[in-house]
Specification:
10 helices, 14 strands, 31% helix, alpha/beta, 8-stranded mixed β-sheet, Rossmann fold, 6-stranded parallel β-sheet, globular, Immunoglobulin-like
Length: 326
């Protein structure tokens, strides 16, 4: 029905084509690129957007018109490769042995987009992978019928979203590490890619360090997932472990859903590469108890359940993940 609605709507209006470049980062001799081609709905958030305006923009953002089988051209320096979008308008490429500071994406009748490639140094002490919802941004996933999540998502613009205390400062400390090389930061969420510009604006407004944002596609197969290994977060995190060979990781999440379970699964599979697992306690007794039981049953893992970011910061300082005078 939704597809029929989109087709009828497209008979009466024609939006320009826009290329969203979600990420482009380099590790060793490979550049990883992911993006999407859509009809541009001209959805731009402003700090003065009220509840009704924010709601209308969110609905518009979620009702995307993707372009399938669309040819885009990825350019790095003099190198140029063609990529074809899938049924949901996504394209993704791994490009080897190509030097250049930036990547440019073009397509017929689409406005070209260019960004600087994020260079991840093999000399970094570690990479940080962090959940967003209820880990750094107050979302309300654990609220009854998720009503707080719905209100926060649909009615509040990025400027009005609240962060947990000291979150952005703490992430800058992790990025700085011991001051020798910048550590990469990956922000991962179960939110759909439709939320990319919204969440990127939130991170910018709240002063979080630049990093790679990893979201998910909305598909029926995702809702059918029953095992942790088939879930979006697990597969995306494992992909990072595979791509960033020999890199160690710090994993940050919350007690609201299955972050701890997923992180422990990853740590068991890569026992020498997970330096620490930090789980934010959301103050829900039964969830806190469950995480404590997970910690007790996994004594070999360095898992910390924290209520305030100060506790996380102190542990990271004692472990020498961040500067001692932080």
């Amino acid at each position: 029905m939704l597809q029929v609605f989109r087709k009828i709507r497209n008979w009466f209006e024609s939006d320009p084509i826009i290329i969203h470049l979600y990420y482009a980062y380099r590790f060793h001799d490979k550049v990883y690129v992911k993006g999407r081609v859509l009809q541009d709905k001209r959805v731009i958030n402003y700090a003065h957007d009220g509840l009704v305006t924010s709601f209308k923009k969110m609905v518009k953002r979620l009702l995307t018109d993707e372009l399938r089988a669309f040819r885009v051209y990825i350019e790095i320096g003099a190198y140029r490769v063609q990529s074809i979008t899938d049924d949901e308008g996504y394209f993704a490429e791994e490009i080897e042995n190509q030097e250049g500071p930036g990547v440019r994406i073009t397509g017929m009748d689409a406005t070209a987009v260019s960004v600087k490639i994020l260079h991840i140094s093999a000399a970094s002490a570690y990479a940080v992978i962090s959940d967003i919802d209820d880990t750094i941004m107050k979302t309300g996933v654990t609220s009854w019928l998720k009503w707080r999540l719905l209100i926060n998502t649909f009615f509040l613009n990025p400027w009005r979203r609240k962060s947990y205390e000291l979150s952005s400062e703490l992430f800058h400390l992790f990025r700085q590490g011991q001051g020798f090389n910048e550590n990469p930061v990956f922000y991962i969420s179960n939110s759909p890619w439709n939320m990319f510009s919204y969440l990127r604006q939130y991170l910018k407004v709240n002063g979080f360090p630049k990093g790679t944002l990893i979201l998910r596609d909305i598909s029926y197969s995702w809702f059918k997932a029953r095992q942790i290994i088939t879930m979006h977060k697990y597969s995306e995190i494992e992909s990072l472990f595979t791509r960033l060979t020999d890199m160690n990781f710090i994993l940050i999440g919350d007690a609201g859903e299955l972050d701890a379970d997923i992180y422990i699964q990853i740590a068991c599979k890569y026992p020498d590469r997970v330096m620490a697992i930090y789980i934010r306690d959301l103050g829900v007794v039964r969830r806190s108890r469950r995480i404590s039981e997970l910690i007790d049953s996994n004594p070999k893992q360095n898992i910390v359940l924290f209520s305030h970011s100060n506790e996380l910061q102190e542990h990271a300082r004692l472990q020498e993940y961040i500067l001692s005078d932080a």
